[in-house]
User: Which sequence fits this backbone?
């Protein structure tokens, strides 16, 4: 349903450091209030959830609603507990998922 | 005699008004409750607030909400929000709700943090259909609720029609 998400992590991080993670995914985020040329309502199609796990632990979650812009950009912070891999998931209305994994290099 | 009665009626009316004004002043000074905060807002905003924070009374403070004062394009308006908190196992920010009360649907996003978050901060991009006061509400681990708002003037609305 979509292209690969773009994720920005610091090149390396230290244990205990608070790092910023930036994410961007291509998606129309159709609100369900717009109408097409014939006056018919365009059905709602949102990515309604974004979740970030690190080394299997929940770190951050966002519930996205109609007021979130298309191609949602979300950044958040994490205190680095040690080495590990991020797992990012976006869930679309209807249940389709976009997932991505990124290894964090911990010095 | 007649004059006395008129005077006394007028006196009562003034007293009542003074009393009402006094009450309003008290309500403002102790911080408006969730219900009071939502009073002037559309029914959908009131029910959303009730769902999100129940009967909690949000107080001003703790939240820094960054938004442009003027947005030329309501379709994508960058914002960031940060809540003061030590973010420890026992004291952290559970959730931040962003609301645009004058949009067709008021909810923008809800962010859930954990004690692993390091700091309760996030940034994203919102849609605004028209000029309005954007609302941020933070729920802390101890049950306290904070609020703040920022006015954004929108030149071209972003909800399409």
Assistant:
């Amino acid at each position: 349903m979509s292209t690969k998400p773009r994720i920005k992590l610091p090149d390396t991080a230290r244990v205990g450091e608070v790092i910023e993670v930036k994410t961007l995914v291509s998606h129309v985020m159709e609100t369900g209030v717009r109408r097409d040329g014939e006056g018919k309502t365009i059905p709602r199609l949102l990515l309604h959830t974004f979740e970030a796990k690190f080394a299997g632990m929940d770190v951050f979650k966002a519930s996205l609603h109609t007021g979130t812009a298309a191609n949602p950009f979300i950044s958040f912070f994490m205190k680095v507990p040690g080495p590990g891999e991020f797992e990012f998931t976006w869930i679309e209305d209807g249940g389709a998922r976009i997932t991505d994994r990124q290894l964090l290099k911990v010095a | 005699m007649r004059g006395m009665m008129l005077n006394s009626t007028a006196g009562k009316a003034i007293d009542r008004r003074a009393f009402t004004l006094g009450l309003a002043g008290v309500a403002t000074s102790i911080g408006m409750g969730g219900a009071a905060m939502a009073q002037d807002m559309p029914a959908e905003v009131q029910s959303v607030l009730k769902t999100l924070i129940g009967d909690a009374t949000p107080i001003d403070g703790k939240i820094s909400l960054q938004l442009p004062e003027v947005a030329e394009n309501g379709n994508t308006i960058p914002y960031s929000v940060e809540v003061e908190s030590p973010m420890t196992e026992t004291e952290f920010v559970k959730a931040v709700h962003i609301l645009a009360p004058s949009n067709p649907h008021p909810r923008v996003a809800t962010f859930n943090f954990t004690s692993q978050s390091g700091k309760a901060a996030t940034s994203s991009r919102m849609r605004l259909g028209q000029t309005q006061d954007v609302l941020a509400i933070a729920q802390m681990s101890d049950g306290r609720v904070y609020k703040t708002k920022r006015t954004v003037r929108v030149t071209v609305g972003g909800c399409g029609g």
